[in-house]
Write a structure and sequence with these properties.
By secondary structure, this protein is mainly α. The protein contains seven helices and no strands.
Amino acid sequence: MSPSQAILARKNLDRRLATLKGEAVAVPPRGWLKGIREALGLSTRQLASRMGAAYSRISAMEKAEVTGAITIKSMREAAEAMGCTFVYAIVPTTSLDDIVRRQATHKAEVSLGRLHHTMRLENQAMEGEDLANERQRIIAELLAGPSRRLWDDK
């Protein structure tokens, strides 16, 4: 994906996720499966029948949801059996562009730190405005290149 395509993809995802940002979703204490099942008045046997599963599987699924061990597939199947839709999302805390810019800034700081150390040993250290300009140049270079480079550890 080219850098311009990546920027467009980030903007589209940010727009689609905007409605979910800042939404504090309070998970029922005993999980969504049990909460919805009980609110609908379904017994574990009735839900198992609707899913074509053993009744013991429902209890196991409800326990697995609370511990975080349930699969997305199982959640989707149970939701459909209860006449619901399972929704799954990863919602960034800030915009995707902000996350990318923050990573580019971090990577630039690391790179600049090494460069500055070497130059200082050679008594050629950059100061003030030169240092700030070099930081901005590195950030711009990182943002203009492939996004994957931002996340490499080297």
